[in-house]
């Protein structure tokens, strides 16, 4: 029985650990594993190679994906679905394991509805996929962001500065929240709550008056600025923000830093972490989660649990409907805002 | 309202993060926080100091505990309970938050049954406490052990050796299992399954015959040797093992290494990680969990949830009966043995 | 005998290790140590505190500086020199140990020429100070930059991208060269050699043609663009560069990335590491170097070696004239360009 | 022109970086590179393979050696020299680059004296090779040992314990000295100075009396115990030590810990780091040094500098006579003992 596996979307530490686990488990089920190159594109272009224990040896702790990846969506390609179906038939592929985030799993859901045998593995450093407590890659991203916040702390303190650290998180603030709590940030700004920059400035002024002459602000890249206060409305009229409070140019970190400096007079610096959060060796935590997902996904194929994906519930790996993963974004719950006590919306 | 906090038992990364979170939350509840020095001993000796935001500043990421710790158990001290009660009364302590493992929480459970107002916070790098999905400190221990396994891997491979890595885990194999999976170990030995050294040796010989001229064996310190095979019985008669399969002298890692070398003829080395697994800065994951536990424990005092402890269920922090934590050990479930495929019992 | 110590200029991992070593050594010489707050400003404002073994305990591995720092230059302040002299007399300060970079040591040199007893300790993450083989802080900056390049590598490879990583180095390319060699960069651009972007683009195209579908470009922030090629001249006329080849807006990393994408058509991303390179815990290497510098500086005071600074020569700590440190920048020697084989000027 | 390369002796982070650099430089000189398997054994057994840019891609940061290694010494094998000569002739090998420590370079020196064209690259994590300021691998070992000492510190402090950390260093105390200084150890014991355990105990008692209720002792594995004091002589009569002060059984760390506990009554633990110090990814510092050594060694072949090895002098790479490397051990100079102020001999 031939089973194909693909990785789609952005980079995420742990992809190779999933692939390795699938291949090892497959040999017990007697599956022949086929690696599709560059996500769904590998099916459209009939570009693939055989995966064996040997070709997946030594990759457990390596970042990236040996399969390559792309953002190609078969439903946005002419005759895409037809071509996918033909490739599956031509190659005698029994089932496809799709490892990916919102985009990849949405396509997987639709294909499954079209009758294809698909099993999913959720992947996102942002942790915004529904239907699973956590995804691999998130812990690594938090680990890297926290190390950065730790380093920025000492400079902020010695130099009596405000330092704004922009982390990943386009739609949700999981990385910002975790790295902010772990790094002891003084302000955390997330997409879930439009940021009230005036309240932020006042908080920093109060800290300063109390002898805390430095502060760390962690902001998720997708954070919008709250437009109720007059000063923030100016950011729209000057073209810095659009009418939803999103920065027009550059990252939100730069705007937050500039506004803090303008409103408080405190010397403020910004650090934008960017891609270092999604590359390189996964943490031990993510390697274990990725391995368990891979083993479970393979077992799902064996059991015929199609249209579903591997998911983490408590410390158990379970099967969850694919549609559930993309039904809505998993946002940071209120409890965290209370724990951190440093959210300003 | 005065609330006392203590840390008991062995070192565990994240203790300071719990203390800091408790103190910060306490200031919102209007509690006055008192730090007891060296666990229950601080109550017996009336040795304590005031905890404030200032005295707990900058400790979030630091290992150890600013409160000190000891293994003193009031129930094993003459008039211990009486002295504890008097100290609580004399100092006007409304409630005690006890951060600790099996020993500390057992004493806490009994005190609670004696009518004292106690809230617990579970602590163990071994992750063997029942009633909570995870405890802080465990992720850090796994992180350190995995880094060690990664490093040993390259030496094993270049030198065509077997390397045995002994990790912590007196009663359960959580650290060995996680570090073994994350590090890609070829054999994992845990207290849950008596180790069949002959099966281990045969597995390593098969690997070697297949061209894998090196192997990594991860063994938890509490692993016992299975005594059914004749050769293992000899270890009892020679005095290396007692009749339960426990090593009489030295660690189990040394015995496993010596037996592998004797049975296979492969050059074998042992590395005993020891205390580096339980000291130093906690991982980001553990800092967040520790902080959430601390905030929740403080809220439990405010809500009067005594005789209970903070616990993790999925990604939620909940309150769980103290007695539940020590009712039985939380062992590694079978699923992990299947995931790793490298357990030999 | 009273000896004062100050730290000036930007943050640099290892400052606290120097301070700690000075204070410990001072107690053997019988010096009373005085810490000046915020660099030379502490002398101008008479703002200082006593340094003892106790107040410098536990700081060896901590980033930042417990003395605080500033860029205040007494020679640019009205009556600055006069005020410094009076403060030294009023407080009975026998000598001042100034830990700092180009700015701080230039002021120190002039003060020394004015007859004050000054000993210097060279500090710069950029490693551009003359008269010493290395300065502390540099190894830590390289360590952090290399970790980042390692992480970017896996993403570049999986996603078939060019990733440009901008590192610190305003006047020299030491960090870029070391991190580039250590991280296996495919192109390294440094201030010492104006960058020939057309040659860079052609190199990346050749790599791609040879099957290397990804590349890592490390660029020092102070790199200028070579203006001989026609396409680069356009960057001047469009206002992106000034006539010396320096970017007018934003960092040079963004311009290099944009130009690579335009000239090659390859998807290109940029990562600007920024302040995380100069904060946080120093590497073991930097802690040892900083400690040796501190001990030596204290001995220099005892021996009356004023107007000089501690310096590293081979693996020996020696005394060097302060003026030597700032006489000229220490540039990356040609040998490194040949070693890396990936410089494009 | 065909050039062979081999790696001999124990594992050392950076070996692959040297190999990669040699192969890349070789392609510029037009050399054809041949990799000998398992050190000199590869020549004796005629076991080798071709090294190209492709086969050495992606190994820069990987621990171990792709060539394998052994401790086989041709001068201890029957007709060893003759067989080496014949293999060189048969394969048309113009020159051999030998990367190794004391054993490998001693053999290389003799072969060179026998007229063979040999170039050396010094390798030892212990940093005990003469003729070069530093060797690659040492910085990585110090980095790992310092991380361990940092972690042990927090446990020692919280638990009011003495912790003894045994690090590598059979003949010299470089690793112990550097990790001890970097980790802020309270006692450092090295092979250069027989350890006076009574003086150590008294020092710890004084610290304790002064309120420092914990201590860290770093001891190099090759440290001998000073036998002048009566109590230490007992260790000989009880068989714990031989007459040179070397432990008969187990490591010196265990004896030091046991004796400290016996003489002071303080709870004392020991941690033996072992092989984790010599495996895994090299630090950035070691990758750069290894790369520069590799490039230089290749240039030495091109220039005909045989019977010599690459060496670091200040920040320059130079050529040094092979015999110089093994003439005597490079011991830790006295200056370091004064810097650390915590040696007890």
From TrEMBL, chains A, B, C, D:
Q: Residue numbers for the site described as Important for substrate specificity? A: 103
Q: Please name the Pfam families in this protein's record.
A: PFK
Q: Which domain of life is it from?
A: Bacteria
Domain (Phosphofructokinase): give its ranges: 2-300
Matches recorded under Gene3D superfamilies: 3.40.50.450, Phosphofructokinase domain
Please name the InterPro entries in this protein's record: ATP_PFK, ATP_PFK_prok-type, Phosphofructokinase_CS, Phosphofructokinase_dom, Phosphofructokinase_III, PKF_sf
Q: Where does ATP bind?
A: 10, 71-72, 101-104
Annotated residues for binding of substrate: 124-126, 161, 168-170, 221, 269, 275-278
* Keyword ATP-binding carried by entry: yes
Chain residues that bind Mg(2+): 102
Q: Which GO terms describe its biological process?
A: canonical glycolysis; fructose 1,6-bisphosphate metabolic process; fructose 6-phosphate metabolic process
Keywords annotated in UniProt: ATP-binding, Cytoplasm, Glycolysis, Kinase, Magnesium, Metal-binding, Nucleotide-binding, Transferase
GO cellular component terms, A-Z:
6-phosphofructokinase complex
Swiss-Prot/TrEMBL catalytic activity: beta-D-fructose 6-phosphate + ATP = beta-D-fructose 1,6-bisphosphate + ADP + H(+)
The compartments listed are: Cytoplasm
Where do the catalytic residues lie? Answer: 126
**Enzyme Commission designation:** 2.7.1.11
Q: State where it is primarily located.
A: cytoplasm
Q: Which family does it belong to?
A: Belongs to the phosphofructokinase type A (PFKA) family. Mixed-substrate PFK group III subfamily.
* Role played: Catalyzes the phosphorylation of D-fructose 6-phosphate to fructose 1,6-bisphosphate by ATP, the first committing step of glycolysis.
The protein's name: ATP-dependent 6-phosphofructokinase
